[in-house]
Design goal:
mainly beta, ten-stranded antiparallel sheet, 2 helices, 169 residues, 51% strand
């Protein structure tokens, strides 16, 4: 029994250490920024469950690395059979925050293989004072590109909306 618990805790730590290395990759593209992928990953939650190929963080779940933070009611870290992390799934009130922008939604799936995070449901993307809203956001942390979609046709509020402030050069 103690051996299984020790293995489970070791697996939680191993998955969490691998959990967000790519989250810092976009940060490393900025001049003068420390490479976040070399920084430790900190995580916390009210409870943690371990199952084969997944670690589930519940209740104020959060993982941080460098200046990036992924927070939700529930974070599920999914790994391959080989043990490497493939994706992180978030549910509840979801936030993905970088030093330059903040994304909020109801659900999110972060695919480490291609660096894309897909945020869905009442999505709000902010960068400084600029705000963009829609129902689905695809953001690539490696290229810092984003695409926002409105709600499906016929739904209330089906348009993408935004407010942009010109820079004061």
């Amino acid at each position: 029994m103690t051996m299984k618990i020790s293995r489970a805790l070791a697996a939680v730590a191993a998955v969490a250490v691998v959990a967000l290395p790519a989250v810092g990759d976009a940060q490393s593209q900025g001049a003068g920024r420390a490479q976040a992928s070399n920084q430790p990953v900190a995580y916390g939650a009210d409870s943690v469950e371990y199952a084969p190929n997944r670690v589930i963080l519940r209740g104020r779940a959060e993982a941080t690395q460098g200046g990036n933070r992924f927070r939700a009611d529930t974070l599920t870290l999914v790994s391959s059979d080989g043990g490497s992390l493939e994706r992180a799934e978030a549910a509840g009130t979801v936030y993905f925050v970088t030093p330059d922008q903040s994304m909020r939604g109801d659900r999110a799936v972060y695919n480490l293989g291609n660096g894309e995070i897909v945020v869905t449901g009442n999505v709000i993307l902010t960068q400084g004072q600029n705000v963009l809203t829609g129902s689905r956001l695809v953001y690539n942390i490696n290229t810092e590109t984003a695409r926002m979609d409105g709600a499906p046709r016929g739904a209330a509020g089906s348009r993408v909306q935004g407010v942009f402030y010109p820079s004061g050069n």
